[in-house]
Amino acid sequence: ESHPSYIALDNFGECLQGETGDWGIDVYPSATIGNQPESMQLMMDGSIEMVIVSGSYLESLNEDFVVFNLPTVFDDVEHQMEVLHDPAITGELYSSLEDDHNLRVLGGFTQGARSIFTVDGPVEFPEDMAGQKLRVQESEVNIAMAEALGATASPMATSELYTGLQSGVVDAAENNEPFYVSQALHEVAPHWSYTNHLVGVDYLVANTQTLESMDEQEREAFDSCWTAAHEEHTDMWADATEEAIVTAESEGAEFHEVDEAAFDEALSEMAQDFITTESQEALYESVRGVAE
What is the CA radius of gyration of the chain? Predict the structure, then answer.
């Protein structure tokens, strides 16, 4: 309940209650009502109204979501949030799940920029990853990312990562700074290298019938309060990131700069490999157009 996502969602509910007098939001953290697949199914059935779900999960419902999950597609969190909440870019994508799944994507919370942390010495160039076993999330994109960097992809559950790094089952992992510290991974992998190879996302997904049951004023209040929520979350995420860095450094972790251009070049061909349709290409060009 101390996580920025919980706080922002709880405040979202208070805002909505205050604006409408009728609508509110009860937030259930820590998989209280099931993991992502279970909670998504409950929402499709109408048993719950909204779910926060990681970006990679939506790829199984519409392959176009892969564009937002690719390394280097977003320059930073600011670029990501501008894209995720621009209806001119996301409108068709976010409504694509309505007919078959009774769902609508409303936008997202950032997971922050992800970087690589290692047990033995910093990573400054992609070639430093050669031969290293890199823990990644179990997805085709993440496995391909590890291979593009010359590492051996090692999918592993979060619960196993600390002991995996400690015992040498894996040599490195990648994630954001709050995760790095909250899981105490800086204790066993004290070298953080700012590769910033990927900016992750959690989507807010809602039951379509719930949204349609709101009258015009209620929906305006809902949208306004959601905008305030994701903006608040972005600010809190920045603060949580800075706090994590201070904590890690005070406990012996070292933070290193890298050759960002070299990492971008190593990962640049992934877009060609994973963007295979005209709709994905158009979406990718729109995202990069915002940055340029």
Answer: 19
